[in-house]
Amino acid sequence: MDEISPTATPEPAKPDLSIVWHFFGAILAKYKEVLTSAFEQIQLAPNERLIQQGERGDCLYILLKGQLRVIDEELDESDNFLTFKEPGEGVGEISLLTGERRTASVDAVIASELVSLSKKNLEAVTAAVPEARRVIYEAISLRVHQSRLNHVLIKTNVFKGLEEDVLRDIQAELELTTVASGETIMEVGDPGDALFIVIGGRLRIVSQKANEDQPYTVDTYRGQTVGEIGLITGAKRTAKAFALRDSLLAKLSQDAFKRLLQKHPDAMLAQFAGPIIERLQGQLLGNEPVTSGVTTICVIPVDNSVPLADFTAKLTDALRSLGSTMVLNSEQCDAHLGTESVAYLADDDPKNGRFIFWLNEQEAINDYVLYEADYEPTAWTRRCVRQADLLLIVGNANGSPALGDIETSLLARAKNQKIIQCLVLLHDENTDQPQNTAQWLSPRNVGNHYHVRLQRMADFRRIGRLLTGQGVGLVLSGGGARAMAQIGVIRALIEKGVPIDAICGVSGGAIFAGLHAMGLDFETMLARVEKSVKRVDYTLPLHALTTGKNFTNALAYLFGSVRIEDLWTTFFCISSNLTQAKLMMHESDSLMHAVRASTAIPGILPPAFQDGDILADGGLINNLPTDLMNTRPDIGRIIAIDVARADQSKELTPFDYTVSGWKSLWNRLNPWAKNSEFPSIGEVMMRSILITNTQTLNITKHIIDLHLVPPVYSFGLMDFDKAQILADVGYRYALEKIGNWQSERD
């Protein structure tokens, strides 16, 4: 039998159910008469067991008199106590809803009186009134979520750090509410009279910023808040918010906030208002981090050639290194719930509500849930899509890039609501460089795409970090020849076990970011760079000091016909659009052309052209684009390599506004002439585009987790023949700095 039967049999006299009705709240008032006969009275002697951990159960117990002890028998006896239950409290709510195995044992501390509500009795008395059954399931669901509120609050930026008594008072003021997918919770112009906390599900915030054509959108997930600014200021809403999926919210009204402010003024102002002010400051500076918030991922195969079970199992292992993770497919749902084909229940099936609650419960108790869809657009696949924060489309890179059946039949709704979609292409172990990725991206509306070799767990750990917003982004600055020190820094990062999940670069940094993204190791990268370095091809300086031919040929040798979307590691570089006076991000098309544009130093190299626009060195606008890396929701930490710091130690020869090039040449040729230190024209041009580096760094330095500044000041910006020496300097410097950083984090 499922439960250990108490020694006393139910008494014929009906118990006083006033505590029961209080337990469920006013929601059951109209169904009291129907439900009364569903409850049975139970008497327990001291130390008598009510519930045995590990056994299946489908009963809810409500304590009327006495006291119960809850223990976890998987722990040592000296440390297995969990909590006491007092009159008016219940145990077994989840088992009534799901039929799952009991997660704890429950004993009577003293003689106790209870009532039980079994699934069998509930269904019997509500057969003629199915609405009553639905209402009681909803009431129990809300109670379970209410009990989990504290767990969510302590992880919420607005509430974390508050004392336990303050959290308890906040929790008492919160009102739980459910919103259906697509339902709006606030419109522009509505009164700012409440704050909402996402307990489960996902909301989208849409606002129109001044001087911008496109609306600004941001998604909020479990543990995040919406509407806090209006709550404090009382101002009208400036954004619209609606549910992207069925969601559970906790609402804090303005009146409730005022009561809390009177009771806990210091705590509410310091620890509640503080994070909100920080967020506003981040918005004003334009460097507010974009967080992922993804907790539920639906894995969708493009076709039957995808080894879905193997892929999902390896991704699950990768996610478990980041947090508690559960993977669910249709068979596992049946096994967990002990019900055949439960995953394929119709939406209007009476059992469907209990199944949805169970799924939501798994999301609440785990950091991540992977929903493994079927190969076809079945009822289970539809449910997976509906539950997901992110849709992960998995294709075989050697197969057809055409849309699969699930994509054509089910994802239209997801596309309309802009649920995040990502593409993973699976490659053979011996694949040198992915190809034809553009053909996969063209028919799809995906935010990011990733290349994975099924045999390499490192690839799965990489996408696990990126999918959950914990990726490590590496940013490489420009700095002329000094940028070659970054080859050694990358070598040190790899040797120290620091992952590089995404990489970007500007000017010289774009070259080495591209080489790393191609998957080249240190030796290969350095050998190619040394082989590509040629003499400078000076020309009549009508357009630039050099023809750019040798440099362009060198880039063609380094990158060939590789496209950015075919790179193993997520990559972008930037250039300056001189025609439109704006920054350009290069995230697709030819890698060589993108790097050529990013490195086109005005006056030294001829500019690049794209769609009729003139493109020049990205360092003109931003020589260390950590802010751009910070806008990626898949990046959680940023490492920056900065080789553009000005050399303040070198003394230059003073001169009076005019310098004779002929005299400088003679001084260099004459062994008896006094050495004069004048900056060369190349140095002046390169230094001039690095001026913005310091200004940008002052604004964005707080978002950098590890800032590496190799000591390359003694090298000239044009010392392109010293790749090996510069790489060694960067390597030795970075080894020590990375080691210290890792020690501090430990």
UniProtKB/TrEMBL annotation:
Keywords: Hydrolase, Lipid degradation, Lipid metabolism, Membrane, Transmembrane, Transmembrane helix. It is found in: Membrane. Its main location: membrane. CDD domains: CAP_ED (cd00038). Gene3D superfamilies: Cytosolic phospholipase A2 catalytic domain, Jelly Rolls. Residues 474-630 form the PNPLA domain. GO terms for cellular component: membrane. Residues 23-143, 158-261 form the Cyclic nucleotide-binding domain. GO terms for biological process: lipid catabolic process. It holds the Pfam family NTE_Ploop. One of its GO terms (molecular function) is phosphatidylcholine lysophospholipase activity. Transmembrane segments: none annotated. PROSITE patterns: CNMP_BINDING_1, CNMP_BINDING_2, CNMP_BINDING_3, PNPLA. SUPFAM superfamilies: cAMP-binding domain-like, FabD/lysophospholipase-like. Belongs to the NTE family. This is Uncharacterized protein.
